[in-house]
Amino acid sequence: MVGLGPKRQPSRKGSMADVPKNLLQEIENLENLFTVDAAKLKQITDHFVGELTAGLEKDGQNIPMNPTWVMGFPDGDEQGTFLALDMGGTNLRVCEITLTEEKGEFDIIQSKYRMPEELKTGTAEELWEYIADCLQQFIEYHHEEGDLTALPLGFTFSYPATQDYIDHGILQRWTKGFDISGVEGEDVVPQFQAALDARKLPIKLAALINDTTGTMIASAYTDQSMKIGCIFGTGCNAAYMENCGSIPKLKHMNLPDDMPMAINCEYGAFDNDHKVLPITKYDTIIDENSPRPGQQAFEKMIAGLYLGEIFRLVVVDLHENKNILFEGQDISKLRKPYTLDASFPAFIEEDPFENLQETHDMFREKLGINATKPELELCRRLAELIGTRAARLSACGVAAICKKKNIESCHVGADGSVFTKYPHFKARGAQALREILDWPKGKKDPVSILPSEDGSGVGAALIAALTLKRIKAGNTAGVRDPSKFDIWLK
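RESULT FIELD:
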């Protein structure tokens, strides 16, 4: 999600005094549809704990609970220069990160590249060629002299992948609207490395990670209270550190019970069975028309990719089927799926004017719709309801990890454009956590979700460093070919 713009504090809540009765009734209907009360949040969280546990027991569950072979937190003494590649849903970011001698300090240079829309439904070869081209541009720009020796790369690949090793990852399924052929069910590392080698780039992949794992490790680098990493952006997910003794599906590997293992939950797939989530007809339409129907049920209700589309579907329904919005106006621009991204409802929530003038102007300029004040009031309330539901549901995943691990107090590092830019998302999520975990009023929240911007890039570099560190110490668990790391360990 992009383009949310600068943060502004709204100075109004809107006045319903001039809203006709039929619109007021529809607002009430929408409130009933999108409001998630504390009792429902607790029910969802309890079911969430069960699905987290099931994913650790065996493969093939709703929540995959993927072991990452990231084994422990950084201590702040990691050093060296690393490349980090972050492939998200919207952008591709390349970083060169130097972990300095100063404890917990690093230097970073980075470049950002847009992921072309046509790439998202293209072929594997097109994907890896594009990424290799971006890496080549980065190296040629920042190292014109060409004296670069082989750098270890941490690759943040933010999609569900089965990892038997730290430098290996079989894509389970595409998410975030991607549907690239020739990648699902395949190990992405050889495909990626082949594209680099074909260009003779001095880069070797040391670690394949998920952005949530990277966010958790990067946050812990500067804050020892960090126990969980979350992403609330184009998609949603979390990672936390589990003991190997609590991961039954790894029992055959005879790892020490107390050895830590970062788990990439991939909990956007929570409740794919639709047992507890308060799914509306609009959520069902989004699911049925998505590249992967029946998957990522939780993500489709709270992630940035879908918030604008939920808003659009409701507005079109109220116009076409209930005849109470934009009567007699041409809404053809609104009929195109995903024509509105999350910045649209976010902008409406942040309109500081009592008469919603900025919202009125945006409807006219972007959609060719001349909305009345009462219609704008309904749209304002709808935006609040969609944003609030997303924030409150997002808290269930964090609360479930805390309950499962008996975490009474910690910091949670969060990244992603919805968390960092969507109005009131943090405050609404914090309020939901209080309700779910029954914290006493008037006291400081024992679990705080804090921003960890760009954590996945620094985290990828740190995880590459941690991998080299433990191989050097003789711990080669989850490393496919330890000899590959010799060039960096001499």
